[in-house]
Amino acid sequence: MLANIRSESIDLVVTDPPYKLTQGGCKSQAINGHFKTSEKIATDGAKNGKIFKHNEIDFKDWMPEIYRVLKNQTHFYCMCNAKNLQSVLNAGTNAKFIIQTVLVWSKGMHTPSQYYLPNIEFVVLFRKGNAKYINEMGSKALIEINGIRNKKHPSEKPIELFSLFVRNSSNKADVVLDPFCGSGTVCLAALKDDRHYIGYDIEPSYVELANQRIQNHLNQLNIFENKQLTP
To answer: Which of 9, 13, 79, 216 sits at 20 to 30 Å (Cα–Cα) from 114?
Structure first.
């Protein structure tokens, strides 16, 4: 699907791609409460980090396409965990991106572990071409936004997190791309911040969920506008 996008036509990419997760030794519950068996324990896939049908996709398989479709002097945000951070950095630089910085999202919750409890995720900020300043230059590298507990998608993120990236690295009417859109949070953030969006996902049920969330937002806007017009 990325192959259908014209080269250097995208203003910003923000994505949370599928990657291998770890259960952290907790076998009594599945990751984020998803993928439980009838006995309410984690499935074998969840225990082995495979919570999506397609999370064996390698970063190096798609990052060169992200570089191709982005305009010059633009940003690319890629979320990952500690185990995948080095792979993301390597794939990005091999695709000719420049590492601008690595952000840390403190999500106010943690997953089970025998070691230090993981309560953070990483966001690698790449750039294509020359340096591009962010719009809100007081933004901090440690981002403290609470995660979502009752998720409709196993890796659903708060819209406030993606809105920060959208506002900082694009302007109104720009085109924001998420090639792994899941429940559509990046697309929704772009829409709410007056940007255009393109979102792809290989799982039809998630595309349906994303479209439903976007339509609900549009319906709410229509209700608000009609109330404003009422004398």
So the answer is: 79
Strands 196-199 and 98-106: unpaired
Q: With contact defined as beta carbons under 8 Å apart, do 202 and 85 qualify?
A: no
Q: Which of 127, 64, 59 shows the shortest CA–CA distance to 88?
A: 59
What is the identity of the amino acid at 112? P
Strand order in the sheet with 175-178: 142-144, 98-106, 120-128, 70-80, 10-15, 175-178, 196-199
Strand runs (DSSP E) across 55-97, as ranges?
Answer: 70-80
CA distance 3 to 209: 24
CA–centroid distance for 32 within its chain: 16
Q: Which pTM value belongs to this model?
A: 0.82
Q: Which of 194, 190, 230 shows the shortest CA–CA distance to 210? A: 190
**103 close to 141: Cβ distance less than 8 angstroms:** yes
Sign of the torsion formed by the C-alpha atoms of 149, 150, 156 and 157: negative
pLDDT digits (tens, 9 = 90+) for 28-68: 444 555 445 555 554 555 455 444 455 568 999 999 999 99
Q: Per-residue pLDDT tens for 107-122?
A: 988 878 888 988 999 9
The strand ranges marked E within the chain are: 10-15, 70-80, 98-106, 120-128, 142-144, 175-178, 196-199
Domains of the chain, start order: 15-55 (no CATH), 56-229 (3.40.50.150)
pLDDT digits (tens, 9 = 90+) for 185-200: 999 999 999 999 999 9
